[in-house]
Amino acid sequence: MKKLILIRHGESEWNKLNLFTGWTDVDLSDNGINEAKNAGKALMENNLEPQICFTSYLKRAIKTLNIVLDTMNLDYLPVEKSWRLNEKHYGALQGLNKKETVDKYGEEQVLLWRRGYEVQSPILAEDDKRSPFNDKRYKDVPRNELPLTESLHDCINRIMPFYHEHILKAFDKYDTILVAAHGNSLRGIVKTLKNMSSDEIISFNIPTGIPYVFTLDDKLNYVKDEFLADKETLRKQMEKVANQGKK
Question: What is the model's pLDDT at position 247?
């Protein structure tokens, strides 16, 4: 059996302020740091020891991974970073308060921007300071591949080639893999593993900092999945995510 461990980064400073984050490079909050430490402890308590790790280009995911590995005394593990594991790009919404945006545009519209499978957020201008075209970390990525906005479908299409060509192929050599990334990028992986419909994945919430463990057979088919948290903690954390875009 193989194990694929997914961890959404710990709470970020902008999660705490309820702002649209997307590709904005925001640090972890103090609570997010504690969530990452607890994630590492949960993995140790369940005798789960990754052998290779993957993360995005965004510091909230990178730092979460570093804290998890430090907690487990596994700082030496190989780590592969990819921009393809970045969060969904929220376009011109990035930096805006979610509840204030609801007050301006309505809860239904904001829900579509946040979770609509085919709905993109308002697009960024290429010369906007928030544009990835102006960020040196993406200088080697072809411009036609860099998003200025995305729907969830766009985000999943961006992620899945990397998932198949790098993460799944790593199982040729390793039995336990850890991916530290973001709510929407991880939902793309979950959708594929569990063969969920677009409606099912839209309503599925991944809480920050709680390891989500998939057991796969030797042919990498889904066997089972579980969050490493008690039911009440998991319920509260999922509700917290779901309520971010409500009045």
Answer: 57
